[in-house]
Amino acid sequence: MSKQPDVRLMQGNEACARAALLAGCRFFAGYPITPSSEIAEVLTRELPRVGGKFIQMEDEIASMAAVIGASLAGMKSLTATSGPGFSLKQENLGYASFTEVPCVIVNVMRGGPSTGLPTLTSQGDVMQAKWGSHGDYSVIALAPSSVNETIELTIRAFNLAEQYRVPVVLLLDEVVGHMREKVVMPEPGDITLIERKKPKCPPEEYRPFERTPDLVPPLAVFGTGYRFHVTGLTHDEFGFPSNNPQEATALLVRLKKKLEHNKDKICTLRTFQCEDQPEILLISYGSSARVAKRAVIQARAEGLRAGMVQLFTIWPFPDKRIEALCRSVKAVVVPELNQGQLIGEIDRYVPTGVPVVGVNRFDGNLMEPSEILEVVRKVANKGCL
Amino acid sequence: MSERYEVRLSGAGGQGLILAGIILAEAVGIFDGKNVTQTQSYGPEARGGASKSDVVISGEEIDYPKAEKLDLLLALTQESYETYRGNLKPGGLLIVDSERVKLGDDVGKNTKVFAAPMSKVAREQIGRELVTNIVALGVIAELTSIVTQESLEKAVLQKVPRGTEELNKKALTAGYTLAQKSSVSMS
């Protein structure tokens, strides 16, 4: 007889913490910040129970540094924060990307800029997730819109981090982080976990930044006899600083290709009402995607041919798939809880002449379906259809 | 119930409205088996300030997770009553604490109104004003069919601190009784 599914009412932040444990996370370093604090709160209790470590650091910067250290020592590591903390973590996030240290950074987005609206929602950090640190670096960013998706994408974040030796930013927003919904907690046997590739060669031959054909070099666990150098300076395959132009180019090219070449595997999205070539396509993510879905249902009821795409992966941006989905649309509508951020990226892949219109709310509240519907109606009446 | 039913529990921070929302959501979602989302908004203060907790109940998948047109509004303070009464849908149910909320003469037409001294009952009959939120849940269960009393009691007992089970059971019963004794008026 099969076991009864484990159905619970759970908050997004708690689901994130519990999914992290299921994914094998055994180290958390952080500094409490609204609206992410419940993630830390749950892990203070749960990590020691499974032999993991929880540490509250002196600040956000040190938390990110501790996560990098723990990961190099072999632990799947997590930190959780919100806008102001995410800003502070940027330098070390760039370091983790450049030194290819797998880790997961949760940013439960709240109203900004600066201290902003600590208890209220926003999607104001989606460009920061990609461009917040200096230099030409790459990360992966995922955005769930429900508590169940938070479980799924938290596990996926750890898997992607391990598979590609890359920091993964999990972008929740306050609505998703604090919302409670019915979830089915997966059993440990039901999920696939990916572990980082370890070196098979003897320690003296190990090159931690080797240009392997799959672009992801194996990562040795510190303290297992593989001694290697980790630096934020541009480095050669052994990890030692190098000013050699060929070495610098090779490293930067490999790091970019690592995600670019695997984009099809990394990027996931979901379509709704797209089977009949919709004329108006809504593209959204996170909590606003739920509002967009309602607006599509309402628009369809009015006879408007609307459909939607919900992005689960924001970075790398699923350019080819968006390009294909937008090929025959008459207009694109982009609901976001900011003054228009991802719309710029989306616009690059929409055919010239097709209007791309934002629906933007940034007062700390989730937009209402009627706000999106109104724009859909306007676009439909403009005669561009 | 396959149709969407939207509840807003509102008042001041510290009145336990977010907890009441969680209890209601747990009762409806886990024990009664419906789909449910519970969301909330609160200010940066730990106490005082405005606080609200929305519970959306449906037999179908819930897309928009917040309440839009309320089927039920609980208001425990004048401020929350003033702020949210406009969100009630025609025919919606307004439940207010009569000790704290003075209803305007212009209370929406076609609104069902239930006014009862929930905080007074909590204070004088149960001995703790703190359980006003649970008294209010009792009132809601008695006046509507959104949650069974059995599920609500299970959810309350699961969520309240140990040692306060009897107190909270009494509060629930006081809520049922209060709703049975008083009547809902149509404005």
Notable characteristics:
heterodimer; A: 385 residues; Rossmann fold; 8-stranded mixed β-sheet; B: 187 residues; alpha/beta; Pyruvate-ferredoxin Oxidoreductase, domain 3; 7-stranded mixed β-sheet; globular
Topology:
The complex is a heterodimer of chains A (385) and B (187).
Chain A (H helix, E strand, L loop, with lengths): L5 E6 H11 L2 E6 L6 H13 L3 E4 L3 H13 L3 E6 L1 H16 L4 E9 L5 E5 L4 H6 L8 E3 L4 H18 L2 E7 H5 L1 E6 L59 H16 L2 H4 L2 E4 L7 E5 L1 H16 L4 E6 L1 E3 L3 H8 L4 E6 L5 H6 L8 E5 L8 H13 L4
Parallel strand pairs in A: 2-3, 2-4, 4-5, 5-8, 7-8, 11-12, 11-14, 14-15
Antiparallel strand pairs in A: 1-9, 5-6, 7-13, 10-12
Chain B lengths: L4 E8 L4 H15 L3 E8 L7 E9 L11 E6 L2 H7 L3 E10 L14 E5 L1 H9 L5 H12 L5 H11 L5 H17 L3 E2 L1
Chain pair forming the biggest interface: A-B, 24 and 21 residues
What fraction strand of chain B? 25-35%
| Overall average pLDDT of chain B | 92
Say what oligomer this is.
heterodimer
